[in-house]
User: Fold AarF/ABC1/UbiB kinase family protein from Svornostia abyssi.
Amino acid sequence: MSTIRQGRLRRAAAVTGTAAEVAARNVTARAVAKTSSSDARRSAATRQQLKSAEALVKVLGGMRGAAMKVGQTLSAVDLGLVPEEIRPEFQEILAQLQQDGKSMPFKQIRKVIEEDLGDKVDALFAEVDETPLAAASIGQVHRARTLDGRDVVIKVQYPGIAEAIHADMQNLKLGLKLLSAIAPGIDTGAIADEVRERIAEELDYELEAQNQRAMARVYRDHPFILVPDVVTSLCSERVIVSDFVAGRRFAALRDEPQEVRDRAGEILVRFYLNGPFRHRLLNGDPHPGNVLWADDGRLAFLDFGFFKRIGDRELGELLASNRAVHTQDADALFAVMASAGVVAPDPALAQPFLEHYDAILGWLMVDEPLTIDTSRTADMMRRYTELRRADGFGSLELPAEHIVMMRAVMLLIGLLGQLGATNVWLDTAREWLLGEEPATELGRQECAFFADLPYTEGTPVAQPA
Assistant:
């Protein structure tokens, strides 16, 4: 029996046991609530939520792939799941999900490399460090040197991981029940749908390598953004080899002076939000583990599994919807969405739809200094849930590029909130949103770099190198 399969069976047993524990604690909490004072009831509920959070970490932390991403998303943003007074302790518990997972012995990793690349590791690489640099949800990363002396990292899928991920979908259902115990109002069905949609893409390293190659070409020699180049000849369905980036993890930025954190915040916005409007490549997975602070001062971006290429029509819709939010033109926004078939053409739905989009994108339209607080994501989630439940929105289906961008915005706010970044955020968006000259030094540097790729509706779609 494989290590992955053994682990899957152990996880299934653990999930079942954990779910039973949470159910028992819920019964106890309800009993206490019936017989105690209001303060005692609140205390019991608080203890129950924190215990459920610990159980959720135990369940999701043992999963692989997209299921694990659910936990990492919860740990990176504040969805307002618990009362404000216990929020720091709650987030500290969930933060365990951002840590590296358990690695596999290199003997098993070697076998995947050799099966996929068709030769012995020693014939493919001059040197490989058998101690992993990092272990993630579906694979681990090893530093290596190619035969021609190139310093690289090898990202390798765990053997048997595809089977384990699909099996973990059953465990995820129980994990989401635990999440419902913490926050009964959260839309766990939407979370499960997103996980199912992402599984195939996440397992296809050839697709991810193509995405990364396209991004690396666009940002090659950029003044403050770095995307490592891919070694195409050493990539396969389960192996990606790309350039090594010397630097520190994202968390190192949190202790830096305000001006350093503000600069990093603007770079994050320019990469995850501004970029797609110029080069048509949308990366929907902002996460602390996917950003490095390179030794040369640039921010390096990794992991391109959750990705969307944007065509002319999609770009036009995104631009029009964002500009309508900026001008607070509910009718203009609704016209875009109704023409795209997202909602029924009922004018009464226009204002609530604008309020939903404004909750997600409004911070980017503020023309004065604003410090990002991760609690903004709680308002986003609340408004989205309310919108889905409101009359007339039951069949709401946002276009894929809107879903990817909104998810990116939510996770991006998590990163900006961790930095406590302060900026006039409208100044980071003036070039594409208003068609104005850049208002910041980083904006001027970027516009000079992209002189032949301006922000226009007619910009060609970026293609892989």
